[in-house]
Design goal:
By secondary structure, the protein is an alpha+beta fold. The protein is built from nine helices and 14 strands.
């Protein structure tokens, strides 16, 4: 676990450390492969060194997973645009909504002002107010915020009520503080961890996934990183291979045959997409960048159902008031492709890394690796 910044007020540092140590830690990295480990190469652009949102300099991710091996499978995932005081050093941000069946707290002010002033937290639907309250406590206690009387916490969610006792609302201050204390750069745990502990995607176990793309030097050399929380349905397509169809688990399968529906027939649930970049762009073009992530979501086979909340939150680490010239509209196209490819691959990683999970009276299987690899070979996606 990362030690909290001891440069903050001593009482604050002690409280943060105590809460972090008292909360369950993030689960260790799981042994299942990522998409690229299997030879899947989405798109044409190169990845960053980690193929993760943390390839964008200064971005940190922290997670806490709650798993009682019975009915609780949930958690919190924290994305920090930088490690400093975000209220005092805001970042340019934007939100794009594909379908608004969800609870993205703080979105209206981000849309209006084009600024993000807190870490971005992801969790379970009914935990949003509790997580936001903890985030407010964290921000108000930061040195320099003693006279602050208004903070806009950004908290997103998906509904993990199929595998998790969602009404128990177990994510609170201890877990939020621990996730913020654990936040760091480097590799990001994926699959059934953090806010993805209890999610379901395409009828298989979903979760947290991440990926990145780096433009060549002649196009600016910028990096785009994406982190997703997958909990939606449709007909799974992996880089052109109709995997969901071949595995016989997909939206409307049973209804089309006049049979009772199964969990795979339910396309509802939501997908949260967080996008980071070091490209010098303002909120208007960040919103355009966020909009293109929906193309990456579509490429995986999402049904974009009535009951799915599809949200993208984008930010640039370049300070909003920096003297760096902002990119022109015509320079955005390569970044659009980068976010499409990174979103698509991040969703695949969330599926490949997730493990079979039983909770709340249900079992959701992980994407079967052997059968999926055979399908990918048959469709020439992998050698």
């Amino acid at each position: 676990m990362r030690t909290p910044n001891l440069a903050m007020a001593p009482c604050r540092a002690a409280a943060l450390l105590a809460l972090a140590l008292a909360a369950p830690a993030a689960m260790p990295a799981q042994s299942r492969p990522r998409a690229r480990d299997l030879g899947i190469k989405v798109g044409i652009l190169p990845t960053g060194p980690l193929d993760a949102i943390t390839d964008v300099a200064g971005v940190e991710v922290g997670q806490v997973t709650l798993d009682d091996h019975k009915n609780v499978h949930t958690g919190v995932t924290a994305i920090l645009p930088h490690a400093g005081n975000l209220f005092q050093n805001k970042v340019a941000g934007a939100v794009f909504v594909g379908n608004a069946f969800g609870k993205l707290m703080g979105s209206t002010q981000v849309k209006e002002l084009g600024r993000i002033e807190t870490p971005i937290l992801l969790t379970s639907t009914l935990n949003v107010p509790r997580v936001a309250n903890a985030l407010l406590s964290y921000m108000l206690a930061l040195p320099g915020n003693q006279n602050v009387v208004s903070i806009n916490p950004v908290v997103g969610e998906t509904n993990d009520g199929y595998l998790n006792d969602i009404r128990s609302r177990p994510v609170g201050s201890k877990q939020v503080f621990a996730a913020l204390a654990n936040a760091r750069g480097g590799p990001v745990a994926e699959g059934a961890v953090g806010a993805g502990a209890g999610t379901v995607a395409f009828g298989f176990k979903g979760g947290i996934g991440t990926a990145s793309r780096r433009l060549p030097a002649n196009l600016g050399g910028y990096t785009v990183g994406v982190l997703v929380q997958t909990n939606f349905g449709g007909i799974l397509d992996i880089d052109g291979a109709p995997v969901g169809l071949e595995l016989g688990r997909y939206y409307l399968k049973n209804q089309l045959a006049a049979r009772p529906p199964s969990p795979a027939d339910n396309p509802n649930g939501s997908c949260m997409i967080v996008i980071a970049t070091d490209a010098p762009i303002g909120s208007r073009n960040l919103r355009r960048l966020a909009a293109r992530s929906m193309d990456g979501l579509a490429r995986t086979g999402s049904a974009f159902s009535n009951g799915s909340g599809d949200y993208a939150i984008a930010f640039s680490i370049v300070p909003p008031y920096a003297a760096t010239p902002r990119l022109r509209n015509a320079a955005m196209s390569p970044l659009f492709l980068a976010v499409i490819e990174a979103t698509q691959e991040a969703i695949y990683n969330s599926l490949f890394k997730a493990v079979t999970t039983t909770g709340n009276g249900h079992t959701v299987e992980a994407l079967p690796l052997g059968r999926t690899e055979a399908i990918l070979r048959r469709y020439h996606v992998i050698p």
